[in-house]
Design brief:
The complex is a heterodimer of chains A (about 190) and B (about 350). Chain A has about 190 residues and is mainly α. Chain A contains 7 helices and 2 strands. Among the domains of chain A are: about 45 residues, no CATH class; about 45 residues, no CATH class. In chain A, helix 2 crosses helix 3 and helix 4 crosses helix 5. Chain B has a single domain, classed as Porin (Beta Barrel), CATH 2.40.160. Classes of the chains: A mainly alpha (about 190), B mainly beta (about 350). Chains A and B meet through helix 1, strand 1 and strand 2 of A and helix 1, strand 1, strand 3, strand 11 and strand 12 of B.
């Protein structure tokens, strides 16, 4: 046993490697072997979880896991069906589902507490407060009727605001608005 | 036709599923099904004959899997894995004389349960020995097309010399000596400490192994590595044990490096394998690599089995991959003239469902 291992130099090398790695203070990551193994990640039928859930006690029925359900809610026909299925399955226990969602959010808050405290500190800092002001403005803009969720649009909006209402473009824009109102009025006259 | 073991597996699975469904919801149970189809077109030219084949990619075979787990009080967790591969024309089983292998092969891969707690995890059943995959650590993103197990593509083709077979196949002249593979065994994994964890397993005929694995993110790159010693016990008269190792480094820019070294303690020959891979992941959906491997002393003392491969993988969607691979298998014989190289073109896709 082990007779063919050149133990002296191998032990030394492994020892040095261990010391080097431990000294570098690396963060562990979850390495899953891929060679020869089944593909990790989402599946074409099973969605984001990559696994068709036959049973999940958290929801009490046969349907995709939470991640799928949330993604489904965002967009698409498939997701609509999933949400419907989830809705059917949980129809009798909406109170419990709500309670469970609260619990999940509580767990998430516990996990992200440290990150959240860092965010609070950042908000208080000089750089943070400036950024946060812009973020609030962005939120306000999103809530407005004409706002979209596209950050590029928001940047254009900021540029436009900076150019000021006295600019030539803005004057033309006001005239164009008058023109549009005139067209609307003409249409209503014909009716 | 399914063998008795797999039939028993179905019964066991049904019992476990029923038991899980009967557990009160508060104990967090889940039970899921997943699988993949991995098919390819393969062109092989052995220097004498060239042919197309339609195969199942042995690099990551077509299969399906049932998994389930159940949380209990005091952090106890129990789970099952039942994974079966189902191949028609495996890429390492077709040859010039057998373009279509007979029937479908339905093989067990994993049929095991595990019990885990903060002190580690114990596995019982058919599954990975501790040393399995310690020659195959690879962060390149191209393992579906090419990795250190060089004979998975065209492994059953025979080298030709002036149009005559020399009785040595690709698979018979190269191997990554990847520990003791999967067996019916008991295995223990330690908890992870600073990215490290150890494993040991024991199977029948006094086979046992020890492995150490590491995975760490340094910020400037991710490193994964593994090393193992495996002992054949009384299962083999001529082979005593294997040392196997591999490491892979992935830089944030996508560049990656992989090496693997393994050696088998065998009467008179002591075959060994050295493998290296240089890869690049780019534009989120693409990965390419170039690799070279050499096995010495496997087909005969001082024989050298070299393999060179270029691989490319395109993942348009997370569940779908398309790949291409060009491989040359070479054999340098200690005695007699060297046979012709075997050139392989390999194109296919893997879809997870």
């Amino acid at each position: 046993m082990l007779k063919f291992m050149p133990l002296s130099w191998m032990t030394l090398l492994i020892g040095l490697a261990l010391v080097a790695i431990l000294g570098c203070n690396a963060k562990p990551f979850d390495y899953q072997p891929t060679a020869g193994e089944m593909k990790e990640g989402p599946g074409v039928l099973s969605g984001e979880d990559g696994e068709l859930t036959v049973y999940d006690s958290k929801k009490g029925g046969a349907f995709p896991k939470d991640a799928d359900a949330q993604e489904a809610g965002a967009s698409g026909d498939k997701t609509a069906q999933t949400t419907a299925a989830a809705g059917t399955a949980t129809a009798g226990s909406q109170g419990k589902a709500g309670e469970f969602q609260d619990f999940q959010e509580f767990q998430q808050w516990q996990q992200e507490k440290e990150q959240f405290h860092q965010y609070q500190q950042w908000k208080k800092s000089t750089a943070g407060s400036a950024d946060f002001k812009e973020f609030q403005e962005y939120q306000q803009w999103q809530k407005s009727a004409k706002g979209s969720s596209d950050f590029k649009d928001f940047r254009e909006y900021q540029q436009w605001k900076k150019s000021g209402k006295s600019s030539a473009d803005y004057k033309e824009f006001t005239e164009w608005r008058e023109f549009k109102s005139y067209q609307e009025w003409k249409k209503s006259q014909k009716k | 036709m399914m063998n008795k073991k797999i039939q028993k597996g179905f019964v066991l699975l049904a019992i476990i599923a029923a038991a899980m469904l009967a557990v009160p919801p508060a104990q967090a149970v889940d039970f899921g099904i997943s699988g993949q189809i991995n098919r390819a077109m393969m062109y092989v030219d052995d220097g004498h004959t060239g042919k197309w084949f339609f195969v199942d990619n042995e690099n990551s075979s077509t299969r399906f899997r049932f998994t389930g787990s159940n949380d209990f009080e005091n952090s106890w967790k129990v789970g099952i894995v039942w994974e079966v591969e189902m191949q028609s024309n495996a890429s390492n089983e077709v040859s010039m004389t057998e373009t279509d292998t007979s029937g479908i092969t339905f093989r067990e891969r994993k049929m095991e349960f595990w019990v885990g707690q903060k002190y580690g995890k114990v596995w019982l059943g058919q599954g990975d020995m501790a040393s399995n995959s310690t020659s195959e650590v690879d962060l390149s993103g191209t393992t579906v097309a090419a990795y250190s197990s060089l004979a998975d593509i065209a492994g059953d083709f025979e080298f030709q010399d002036n149009g005559a077979g020399i009785n040595v196949t690709v698979g018979g002249s190269r191997s990554n000596f990847d520990g003791l593979s999967r067996q019916d065994r008991v295995r223990y994994d330690t908890p992870t400490f600073a990215g490290f964890y150890g494993s040991t397993s024991v199977a029948s005929q006094s086979r046992w192994d020890l492995a150490l694995r590491y995975a760490g993110d340094f910020g400037w790159g991710k490193l994964a590595a593994a090393a193992a010693y495996a002992d054949y016990g009384t299962s083999n008269d001529t082979q005593d044990g294997i040392i196997s190792s591999s490491a892979s480094l992935l830089l944030p820019m996508g560049l990656n490096f992989t090496v693997s070294y393994a050696k088998r303690d065998q009467d008179d020959t002591d075959p060994w394998n050295l493998f290296g891979k240089l890869g690049y992941q780019f534009l989120e959906k693409h990965a390419a690599s170039i690799q070279y491997g050499r096995t010495e002393n496997l087909s005969a003392k001082d024989d050298k089995g070299d393999t060179f491969s270029l691989a490319y993988v395109f993942s348009p969607w997370k569940s779908v991959e398309f790949y291409a691979n060009y491989t040359v298998h070479m054999l340098d014989r200690d005695e007699g003239s060297d046979p012709d190289d075997i050139n392989v073109g390999f194109f296919g896709g893997r879809v997870k469902f």
